Amino acid sequence: MIPATFISFLSIACLIQPILPFYIPGVAPLDFKKGENVEVKAVKMTSTKTQLPYDYYDIGIHCKPSNGTIYKSENLGEILRGDRIVNTKFQVGMDTNVACRTLCKDVNLTPEQSKTLGKRIRNNYYVHLLVDNLPCATKFQNVETHETFYEHGYRLGIYTKEPEAMYVNNHLIMRLHYHQEADESFRVVGFEVEPKSIDSKRIKTEEDGTCVIQGGQDMQKINPKEENKVTMTYEVEWTPSETRWASR
User: Is residue 8 part of a domain?
Assistant: First the structure.
């Protein structure tokens, strides 16, 4: 039988062993200089109606970067959730506003791709993006109480039953908030997205990648039984914030 004193000695020895630090990538704050690239990544598309997630590039309107797609999970929580984080074509610079920029011009959707997109819109799917490991949210305000609340991600599109119609959100207004830590050091502390459906015929694209949205109310309708042509665009708005990175 092992003496009780020896067991006590082993217990104490285990307790006084040095504790090694455990670092999870993606948790530490990132500092950006003005104009420095702030990468926008995609996670997935989700729906509370079906509970079945899909890859960001599952639909044809999410055009891939010219250098290809790179999937990467950056921390333990993302791995456990099964998130497949991937790069996107969005180009965002720290504290640099963009009036309108073309993401994909005249994307031709086959009838099969149109059917898939229509199905995702009808099932109320949301798209989830990340900036500096901060997920995007859509801001809403209660008409009666004027109370502000947020939804995770942004809606892929709009579905109406009477008359039955589907519209894709093909223009994103990205509202990013930064906190200035030092004279030339900025940190991302907020990420909001306002999605809009704009008829691609109202979008005038330029050779340098910029675009102009012409007046009108027509939205980008999707016919799930036919071919569709869609232009995807976005704009970026930066706002200073008193919120610090640790409290974002």
Answer: no
